[in-house]
Every structure is written in structure tokens, then in C-alpha cells.
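User: I'm curious whether this sequence folds into something compact or stays loose and floppy. Could you predict its structure so I can see for myself?
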Amino acid sequence: MALKGLEILVNEEHQEQDTLLSVENLHMKYNEGKENEVYVLKGMDFTISAGQMVAIMGPSGCGKTTLLNLIGGLDQSSSGAISIDQAKIDQMQDDELTRFRRDNIGYIFQLFNLFEDQTALQNVILPLLLQHKDVKSAKQLGKMMLLDVGLGDRVDDVPAKLSGGEQQKVAIARSLITQPKLILADEPTGDLDEATSDDIMALFRRLQQENPRTSIIVVTHSERIAGQCDRILHIEDGRIESDRYLEEVVA
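Assistant: Here's the prediction. I'll summarize afterward.
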């Protein structure tokens, strides 16, 4: 069978799965001065199934982080629609969007974004405290999450006492503690060495297996990291240039 035919069959097979994220005709532009409009995203359309790990790749400035911020409800698009588990986040008011984001989306950043004066446990349980959960039960769950990511003995350490990989594991535990439907990871291994990066990706896989409906989007420049995902979206100049699943990579 020709590769093009294989791609069509694979895409049709995956489109039949349970859709978690839907992006429709998404545009984003910025105004620089009175007459100068800069288009960052130029009409993106794609869906992501529940339980899928998707890499987003492309050159610097192509719109990867902008797309992630729009999906996460951190920015408002110029036009288009974004739905997460059928909830239309682009139509939500600020308060509703804040609650939805808090309860359904986990964030992981390249620079970890941990509070330096807080312990690993305090950083991990912060999302639960923002949900007004009981402190005692939040701490119990936080300790379980840290144990799950291999940091059960670092509960009381502040970030300065942790390695880069350990800090990223704290950030991952924090992102997962509310059992989000969608995890957005912006260059989560960008400042880590190759072995630690592989450990982080293996951790993603294991935690995803324990939460089979959770989808993960990873923005990365690394082909090696992207190759450990289920699917790769490649962006060029604000558009999706290619969309391939691992099944499409043939000799």
C-alpha cells in the first residue's frame, strides 16, 4: 500500500476514537502599531483523542507556545473554536474559564515555575488548596503523588535542594494532583540532560497509563522526545505542516 494511503487509513482510525480536544479554524493575530498586524496562527484544525500523547514541533516563532496558551485558556484567540471534553472554552467568561482551567488542565513548564520558598510538598498541593480542599487530605495526596514520581523522600526539600530533573518531577506531580483531563507541557525537558529527559518521558507514560483518559501535549524541539509520543504535529508559519502517528513511520 502506498504511504499516502496508509496515512489516510491511520488518520481515519484515530479520528474514530474518543475526542478530548477539538481545535477548529483557529487564528491568532497581534497588532503592532496602527496598521501592522502579525498573524501567528493561520487557521488550525485538529483533534486529539483521550489518552493520547502528542508532540508539537516546529521552528522558533512558528506558533507552538501561542497554540498551547490558547488551548490552556491563558490567551484569547482572534477567531476559531476550542473545545475540551465538549466544553467550549473560547465561549467562557473569565470566572468560568478560571475554574475550568483549574479543574481540568495541568501545566508543566521548561523552567519548572516552582515557588522557591515552598517545599516540594507545598508546591505539589497548591492546586488543591486553590480548590479549597482540606489541607490534611491535600497533604496526604501530595505525599502519594511525590512517592509516585520517585520523590517520596524529598517531601520537605525546597527547590534549591533538588536537581533539575527532580524539580521537573515536582512540577509533574503538581500538574497531575487534580487528575486533569489535559496536560500541557511546554519544553518540559528543554533544560535537562538526555538521560533525565528520557526519565521524564517514561514518567509521563507510566502516569498516563494510570490515568488512561488523560491527554498530554508536549511542545519540543527534540525529534528524540517527539518520537516517544503517539503522534507528532509539525507547525510551519502558523499552520499545521504535517500530522503523523507513530504507525506511519515505516522503513
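Summary: Helices lie at 3-15, 64-71, 94-104, 120-130, 135-148, 164-176, 194-210, 223-226. Strands lie at 19-31, 37-49, 53-57, 79-84, 87-88, 105-109, 182-186, 215-219, 231-236, 239-245.
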